[in-house]
Amino acid sequence: MKAAPYDYAKPVACDEAIALIGPADGNGKFVAGSQSLGPMMNLRLAQPERLVDLRGIEALRACRIENEVVTLGACITHAQIEDGKIDTGTRGFMEHVARGIAYRAVRNRGTLGGSLVHADPAADWINSMCALDAQCLVSGPGGTRTIGNGEWMSGAFTTALEADEILTAVRFTRLSPTARWSYYKVNRKPGEFAQAIAVFIDDAVRGVCRAVIGALDAPPYAIADARELLAADPPAACFDAHLEAAGVEAGSYEHEVHRAALVRAAADIRNQKGSAS
């Protein structure tokens, strides 16, 4: 299958791009790496009348760290993060996650923002940004706004972003030098979307000990205080209680897979050297 005919534009500024997609346009789409939208168009699952290519907008590739706050442009690629071409301020966490996304050909083109906007519950960046409690910076016809981590994703493939808005960047607090992290996901084979994801961020300096249960049929489930799970010998009941709260049915295959990911991620961070929360 090939995509249905469509118009194409490649603006050089966000305002120009936003003007090309508006209420009067009807069925236009912003596109960056096209690693999600492209296959959907080829299968005729999506048939936009116009594509507005964001790759020519330099501002969407800008990254900086100011006063311990990291801002990463939405159009940076997975490969740029993987190769360390950008200082993410996460002490290797995002670099590690990027290496496990799909295949190198996908990582060369796929973007951080594109993944977040697509909002597949099993995607790596959706769950990683939840663990970092990242904010999403958005521009649209009405100006700019910030969407908190808890409000960004409302369901599978559904975000708070309006059709005529652009995700311009993500923002989060830099991890301290003594911070620890772990990331464990279950795939049937390398390159596939995960069946289960578990993430821990333990940053005693900032008073943060956060965990995420991901690859659910819903948005990631965040555990704001995960200290109990990182205890020397945590009881099995505390893992199961969080899985139940995340909507994972006890006794199911999904429960066993998610539980294994959570237990192994917790064990990994406990075995690391560094300051414990």
Automatic annotation (TrEMBL):
Residue stretches making up the FAD-binding PCMH-type domain: 1-177
UniProt xrefs under Pfam families: FAD_binding_5
Keywords: FAD, Flavoprotein, Oxidoreductase
Alphabetized GO MF terms: anaerobic carbon-monoxide dehydrogenase activity; FAD binding
Secretion signal span: none
Class of enzymatic activity (EC top level): oxidoreductase
EC number(s) per entry: 1.2.7.4
Protein name per Swiss-Prot or TrEMBL: Carbon-monoxide dehydrogenase medium subunit
Organism of provenance: Paraburkholderia silvatlantica
